[in-house]
Amino acid sequence: QKVRAGTARRRMREKGARRQSILDAAGSLFLEQGVSATTMDQIAERAELSKGAIYLYFSSKEELCLALLVEASQVFTDEMKQSRIAGAPPLEELEQLIQAYYDFYRRRPDYFRLLFVIEHQPYRGPVAEELRARWTALGKEGLEMLADVIERGVAQGVIRPCDSWTTAVSLWAAVTGALVLSGQEIRWGFLGQLSQEDLVRSSLQAFLTGIRTPPDRDSARPDQPT
Q1: DSSP H/E element including 109
Q2: 35: Cβ–Cβ under 8 A, 6 or more apart, which residues?
Q3: How big is the chain by its Cα radius of gyration, in Å?
Q4: N or C: which terminus of the chain has fewer CB atoms within 10 Å of its end residue's CB?
């Protein structure tokens, strides 16, 4: 019984390692030449497996690509969760979350490019529904973190009344755009080679200024003599 259990565990480890080697091979090719230009034959050659072996793990190139997005998104979501400090004021927590996003960009450049830079299709075809549902859930989870903090800020009166989901998407889009545009060398001629950290901070501060509840001017003024 122990021998069988040990054999089963070893096979599971081998299967997991082979699956990861396929993902690693596909990810490197997608980053080098794009998804549409990459073939399953190329992935099999890079992974040093037969194409038939690839299909034992993934039903299509589209499913393989979505599996990579899920892997990257899981890491991203986990790192965002770990950055949160319980009880932090809402505006401060938004800054912490955006800092975690920037740290993810710096530490995981390949994951960032897979998620936000290279072109993807809708992947409605030969992709497992469970995988697509997981990808959707992970994407929502990350944005819900931002939306929840914004809702709390509105409830506490430090953030203007707003649609928290739209505001969360807008903040995410602003920071993503700052990172993507400033990271493309072809644009440096007219953008200048900006400090990405400074640009992210500037984008965040401009955004926070826009959503922050303005001070009550009447209560801020000293009492006037009657």
Answers
A1: helix 109-116
A2: 61, 65, 118, 119, 120, 121
A3: 23
A4: C
Distance CA 157, CA 165 (A): 17
pTM of the model: 0.85
Q: Which of 175, 213, 219, 179 is nearest to 91 (CA)?
A: 213
Residue 125: partners with Cβ closer than 8 Å, 6 or more residues away: 60, 62
Q: CA dihedral in degrees (122, 113, 76, 99; nearest 10)?
A: -130
Q: What average pLDDT does this structure show over 60-81?
A: 94
d(CA 24, CA 30): 10
pLDDT of residue 57: 94
- Tokens 């401060």 belong to 92
Cα separation of 78 and 162, whole Å? 27
- Cα gap 139→116, rounded to integer Å: 12
Residues 7-26: what's their mean pLDDT? 86
Distance CA 8, CA 12 (A): 6
CA–CA distance from 13 to each of 4, 58, 65, 172 (Å)? Answer: 14, 17, 22, 37
| C-beta separation of 69 from 135 below 8 A | yes
Digit-coded pLDDT (tens) for 99-133: 999 999 999 999 999 999 988 877 777 788 899 99
Alpha-carbon 175 to chain mean position? 11
Task: Enter the tokens of residue 139.
Answer: 């994407």
